[in-house]
Amino acid sequence: MAAHVTSSRSCYIVFGALLVLLVLTVIAAGIENHTLGIIVALLIATVKALLIIVYFMNVRFADWVTRLAVAAGFVGLIVLLAFMMSDYLTRDPVDEIETSPVTRAAPEAFEALALLHPEAFAPGISV
Amino acid sequence: MTGHVAHHFDDAEQQFHAANLGMWIFLATEVMFFGSLFAAYTAYRYMFPEAFVAGSHSLDVVMGTINTAVLLLSSLFVALAVNAAATNRSRAAAGFLVGAIVMGVVFLGIKAVEYADKFAHNHVPGAHFQFHRESEGEHAVDGEHHVSVNESAIPGGDFQAGHNSPDRTLEKRVELFFSLYFAMTGLHALHMVIGVVLLGIVAYQAWRGAYSQTYFTPVEVSGLYWHFVDIVWVFLFPLLYLIR
Amino acid sequence: MTTELLAPPERNYLSAGYTARSWLLTVDHKRIAILYMVSITLFFFVGGAAAVLFRLELMTPEGDLVISETYNKLFTLHGIVMIFLFLIPAVPAVLGNFLVPLMIGARDLAFPRINLLSWYLFMLGGALVMWSTFVGGVDTGWTFYTPYSSTYANTNVMLAALGAFVTGFSSILTGLNFIVTVHTMRAPGLRWFRLPLFIWAHYATSLIMILGTPVVAAAIFLVALERGLGIGIFDPKLGGDPLLFQHLFWFYSHPAVYIMVLPSMGVVSEIIACFSRKRIFGYRFVAMSSMAIAVIGFFVWGHHMFVSGQSVYAGLVFSFLSMLVAIPSAIKVFNWTATMHKGHVWLSTPMLYALGFIGLFTMGGLTGLFLATVAVDVHVHDTYFVVAHFHYIMVGGSVMGYLGGLHFWWPKITGRMYPEWWGRFSAVLVFFGFNLTFFPQFVVGYLGMPRRYHTYPEEFQIYNVMSTAGASILGVAYLIPLIYFIWSLKYGPRATANPWDARGLEWEAASPPITQNFETTPIVTTDAYPYAEDEQRTEETLLV
Ligand SMILES: [Cu+2]
Fold this sequence. Notes:
heterotrimer; A: 5 helices; B: mainly alpha; Four Helix Bundle (Hemerythrin (Met), subunit A); 8 helices; elongated; binds copper (II) ion
């Protein structure tokens, strides 16, 4: 069987690099700019994750199927994030073209209803 | 050790490949599982940047940093354990695995201290949640009391703001931050506990000399799981503790 | 080929043990498939019973049989049971479990014990849902929308949600098992483009299971935290966004429709090739369209949120992407039709179900385009038009595929033939009853009858009476196969190894197969569906 695993020497080097990156990310937290800060923090975290995946998790010896499986989860996550945020990032202009006031007032209406008819929302009512 | 090949596999190679691929696919589902929480985090951090800064400042960066280092060290131990098992040093692998387990327990211990601190400060979401910007943060945010929130992004979001002071609104938003904090770190801690048990079983087998160059699948596969839990923390740490 | 072998092999998987233990602790994929078959059949009739009750209620415009709370609990029970406990596992966990290893020439799935674990998780989830029903029911609808589910509902949401959560893990483990099995355990010579389309469909389905299911699990997990521990993730009082739940929920639940329908498409491909005596037209396109549906399915979930406060711009993007699903779906429909063209079509029971699938799926798909259009959706959102649409896809598609596949492989699974006349009769009856039930709902929905209410204006009664009448026929049509399948176990004629003279490795195993599936590992030398070379064989040579 192919016993391809990372040598202990490489393990120690990677661990060293991970610690350096940890220090870097704490220092980078001093960046006052919110957006830049998050980009740097995520970049460093991604590099750390890649080091762990490639060396500790022996993906550099893996075949293409395994590599595909490694990528699959992250690709799926990017799809989720990108399309979900496409909603949040573009909700502002919705105001201007006047979306349904019913939707926007729904929680308020619900609370008002609860004040008027507390019994309808009291726990314990049942069929 | 041909006895390790289950009846439905042709050889050890096929079995190792299947187990390895199976774990990676399981980890893909885990990425999506944690990823959903990260997605919730992304949406709310976009909506309430200031509340996230305020909430983050009340977390202990030193503890978080130490915990990250502890977890990275445990990952090193696991990687060394796989290396040892694959080079016919089963007993050494057991030693490294015990090291990893100890680091895992240390991590959980530090986490428990942090949680206890949250309970003490009423930072646990729920009826007793309290958060005061002035007394909490060393850094009051820009001295201004205006809370910039993308209100229009939340249906009915301005309804609370209308009835409450900005501080009260901020407290609500920070409660949301802490809800995410507990959901994410709690789920992570749960995975750590499972990982500790898993490594414990493998360590016991390794100590009995079960693994060798031709058969170390359980070490490799449970190691993958442990590294994954480490990677989740690598992202959680800057996203929760280090927000400016 | 061992077509003359009429007696079953002495030691087949069914005769391997008769004790409860030999079933409950089995790791044989074929026995686990049977466990699933029995369980989902039970759940199907539970979900069906709920449907009977609310269809009776809807006979009249007034609420006279049940009060509104009970009505809400009935449609919730129907939705949760039918989706999580029947449709999601139906084809993959029963037919897929049984056939994936057989079709690729393997002795079992890659992880037999995980396979058994997934059945136990499924049963645990099912038990939780049943428990939630017996202690009073749930009224959130199967969608568990926040903030109703997290804050306001005072029914047993936690139990039911936990049930859905646990069955989700069962489905993840099934998908994981299929993917690893197809990658690592194919018989020598069985290259990717020689795989039966059933396998391609299940591979695509498994992708959705492993990448989609964890997201809904996380959404339910967060609802549970909010409801159980008072942690407020979706709580508008804290500024939380209930729509976030809908994003996470539909990220899974739209692709989940393809978990239900893709495996049935695989079944239909097998049936059509066999009963047209032809190689599937455009094999590679059909295989790739399964993958395309699985992938595109992840980009369209926002079409469920057009009117719930999602950004209009995001809505437009989701609308456009939803239309794209029509392309691979149409490729399949056209290629199945082209396969039948100039083929020796034999209208056996499985073929009738497959043809029914094509017709109903096409209807469901085309009305899906209406709903994917933002402007039309604003009009018909949350009306019976939507109810009719998704029943055409999920019942007209998924259930037709399941029943067709069950008839097609029944001889393989049990070693017995079902009565062909009754089979054809009930297949036609299902098709008729289904259309009578759901076509009027398109009309009444378009006229404006909202879903999920137990009373309605009088002018809608005629459509509801038609619908209830159709549902009665449909109910009978589903009971007939149940009866004759059970009958056939004892009295059905013995099946040969290959009663349909079909192609595929599963037909080279005995009927029923031995525990190890094959005496010797088969070696594959041809592409899938090599029917063309013996076109002279016709209906008469086939065993009826
Ligand atoms: Cu959809």
